[in-house]
Design a protein that fits this description.
Blueprint: H1 6-46, E1 49-63, E2 71-78, E3 82-93, E4 99-127, E5 130-158, E6 163-190, E7 197-209, E8 217-228, E9 233-242, E10 259-270
Antiparallel strand pairs: 1-3, 1-10, 2-4, 3-4, 4-5, 5-6, 6-7, 6-8, 8-9, 9-10
Keywords: Signal
Pfam family, one: OMP_b-brl_2
Signal peptide: 1-30
Length: 271
């Protein structure tokens, strides 16, 4: 302090006086705004409106309906770490608020990686810069990912202050995505199941890429439940299934349909 000159002391004294003069009004302003927000939320709640913010994880993948005969053995499955963030508005009906209708907006990632042994699996590989379609037998590695904006609309039922369940539909818009992989340790029959044989052995492989063939929009159904841990905090879980194929309708390289099936779970805050 002895190194601070008179000019600096005057400056510090001036700043201190300004802070003391404005501190009380700023505190009062913040308290008033928090009070106004709480009052608005209480008024919305009394009219049956409920706001929630959720964060969670997606676990699952794009799967066919049943195991196709071409897939003989699944050797590996990695569901990846898929984050979700969702805001939901619910309107509870009646005096007891047992039934309600909810709509939300969710940003989510859906990814997976699988390895399988296949036989006569129709695909299209990239070899020496050219695309070669045919029937492959051997090892297949697949990577799938999709970043989406999803709008779920559900009917809700509240059993008590702790538990509620829901069921409904959703529509998804894909923002970005990929479906690619490689084949190895096997052979490809060019064109037909008895076509010219192209062999991949001793570490050789060939890539495939169907990124541009992914569908932009999907729709499906979801069911779920919520458990209130505290007044504002809760845990939730949802199971969703898309009705349509992840690929465009004019894409026929993969002969069976694949549908996103995911379990979404996490925690949330109720305002």
């Amino acid at each position: 302090m002895k190194h601070i000159n008179m000019k600096n002391k005057v400056t510090l004294l001036f700043i201190t006086n300004i802070l003391l003069a404005t501190g009380v009004p700023l505190t009062a302003w913040a308290q008033n705004n928090i009070g106004d927000r709480d009052a608005a939320l209480r008024q919305m709640s009394s009219k049956g409106w409920e706001l929630e913010l959720k964060a969670g994880l997606n676990v699952g993948g794009a799967t066919p309906l049943g195991l196709p005969r071409e897939i003989r053995h699944i050797s590996s499955f990695d569901p990846k770490l898929n984050g979700t963030l969702e805001g939901t508005v619910t309107k509870w009906l009646g005096k007891e608020h047992r039934w309600g209708v909810a709509a939300g907006v969710k940003i989510e990632a859906m990814r997976m990686s699988t390895g399988a042994r296949v036989k006569s699996y129709h695909t299209e590989i990239i070899q020496d810069g050219d695309r070669v379609a045919g029937y492959y037998t051997g090892y297949d590695k697949t990577n799938y990912s999709s970043t989406n904006i999803t709008i779920p609309i559900t009917a809700n039922y509240s059993f008590n202050d702790r538990w509620k369940v829901r069921a409904g539909l959703f529509v998804t818009c894909r923002l970005d995505g990929e479906f690619n992989g490689y084949v190895s340790d096997g052979y490809l029959r060019n064109g037909t199941p008895v076509g010219e044989k192209v062999t991949f052995t001793e570490g050789s492989s060939a890539n495939y890429n169907f990124d541009d063939d992914l569908r932009r929009f999907n729709w499906g159904t979801q069911i779920g439940a919520t458990w209130n841990a505290y007044r504002h905090f809760f845990l939730f879980g949802n199971l969703s299934y898309a009705f349509n194929n992840i690929f465009k309708s004019d894409f026929h390289t993969v002969t069976f349909t694949m549908h996103p099936l995911y379990l979404n779970f996490g925690f949330g805050y109720r305002f």
